[in-house]
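Here is one chain, start to finish.
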Amino acid sequence: MNEIEVKNVSFTYPGDETNPPVRALDGVTLEIEKGSFTVILGHNGSGKSTLARIICMIDSPEYGSVVIDGRDMTAEDVTDKDVLDARRKVGMVFQNPDNQIVATIVEEDVAFGCENLGVPSDEIRRRVDEALETVGMTKYARHAPHKLSGGQKQRVAIAGVIAMRRECIIFDESTAMLDPMGRREVLETIDRLNEDGITVVLITHYMEEATRADKVYVLNEGRVLTSGTPSEVFSDPETLWKASLDVPQTTELLYKLKQRGLDVPLDVFDPEKCAKVIRDALKKKKAENGG
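Its structure:
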């Protein structure tokens, strides 16, 4: 069953006296299955964040529909309760963790969303403890958020979404402002959440992050350029390059070797496995040449 269906969605930002209107999305259609790990790729201005805001019902599409758990959230008979129920299913973690943290103590920040939902105090305590444990931040419960690293702050933000019992979490460029260690911490947390059954939508422009997904959608100029498994999407690097997009470094290396006549696949994303594939291909070619 699909948890989220986006059907032919378009969205335009209005212009003003000095700037013309901007068509951010133009007929986007995609499906996100319950419990899946979906990545939405694209360069800046491709419409990724606009799509995230529409899925979270922060913005409404100009055309098209968004269906969450079988309910069309753009239908005329949608009630405020329908919208509230859907928003309780889908949460979002934004790019800058400093823009998401509102309290001066970590555990109080994680509890903030639950308090706004009217969750009883003893239940909030349990949820906060469980959420901090899930993201590996229990020992920082009484710390001040501003003293944490970027990766730790982002994990606190994720804990706040987990505590609100979101079934689907959208990560909108949530690793973009982090150093390599912080990115690794957050990605490991995202992997654990998905393993626990939470639907993950990761919006990113880092190609290596996309290789961990079940399905990848590539946006370009507000449209879906291509989609499929990571193997399917990255096995056609020329399509991505024409749209000024990158591919994983291993894919680029294997593609160039293939162009030179080496029999190698393009869907090997782990560096060590990539090295083995190249080594085996070189041995095979040497043997075929009688070397």
